[in-house]
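INTERNAL TRANSFER SHEET
From: sequence group
To: structure group
Subject: Diphosphomevalonate decarboxylase

Please process the attached sequence and return the structure record in the designated field. Keep the field labels unchanged so the import script can parse them.
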Amino acid sequence: DLHRASTTAPVNIAVIKYWGKRSTTLNLPTNSSLSVTLSQSDLRTHTTASCSHSFNSDSLLLNGSVQDVAGARTQACFRELRALRSAIEEKDAAEPKLSAMPLQIVSENNFPTAAGLASSAAGFAALVRAIADLYRLPASPTELSRIARQGSGSACRSLFGGFVAWEAGVEEDGRDSLAYEVAPASHWPSMRALILVVSAEKKGVSSTTGMQATVATSALFPMRVKDVVPQRMKRMEKAIHEKDFATFADLTMRDSNSFHACCLDTTPPIFYLNDVSRAAIRAVEGINAKAGKEIAAYTFDAGPNCVVYYDEENEALVAGWFKAVLGSVEGWDGARGGAVAPMGE
Ligand code: DP6
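Return from structure group:
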């Protein structure tokens, strides 16, 4: 009685950042966010979900090492998916009782885990989709995003390709805190992301811990949540629809800086950027100054690694400049380029 399904989920990198929770148990955010999904040939998680009565208990293997499945986040995902499967089994007695069987999840990342490269986003998105496929749930990506969010907030955005928003929602149970597609990758096929791996080490302050501290202590943060982000969300969606790269870049850089300013405004302060990150910022500012307009945009998550967005037409300028400027900076491990592409559905 072995049942099995495999899937992959891509990494997404936010251009309007999720930072702050209004519920820590349900991973409900204080503000909406927007991301670009990266090509799966560069960064992705591959997950196989199996279930069988012959398994002793639920288990999770990530890159060959055993993970704790007792954590509230993984348990929430398992519970929600089993409930949806049970409903199918109750309606149709011919359906095998998969929801009663222990689950075995095997995941592989093709990039460094927990290095600030959004591994939890691809990880939980792949876990939820693999189990949904195993259970043959008729759930849409938006419905699955509600479940993946409970694993890791940013994971809800990895159920879609292209340009994706996560609506913060207002309901206490989180039923309206969902991801939706702003535009498919095919809408803006010349968009590119360059990943500058500054450090592949595990990050210092986890995003969960960091955002809690910011919510509790930063005086800048309430302004970001109330006025700054809602306006930027609207302008960013418009810039994407109009393929207005200069506005997209301006908002992306401002929002990364606003997020890191809130980190610095946290007590005690949180430092995610290092000297190499700051050199990357100066390099992008230099490229844009030389071009006389924004042709590249930097953004940083909860770590020192830099993601640079640019349009393919400026590939030579942007990639060439980075090699010239950062090639001599100590601590720079190299760059990886990747096209933005849909999830292959
Ligand atoms: C800086 O999704 O990792 O990357 O919900 O606690 O799992 P949890 O946090 P997580 O936070 C990501 C924060 C960020 C910004 C973003 O991706 O929007």
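Handover comment: The pocket of DP6 is lined by residues 14, 17-19, 27, 33, 120, 152-154, 207-208, 301-302 (CB under 6 Å). The chain is about 35% helix and 20% strand.
Transfer complete.
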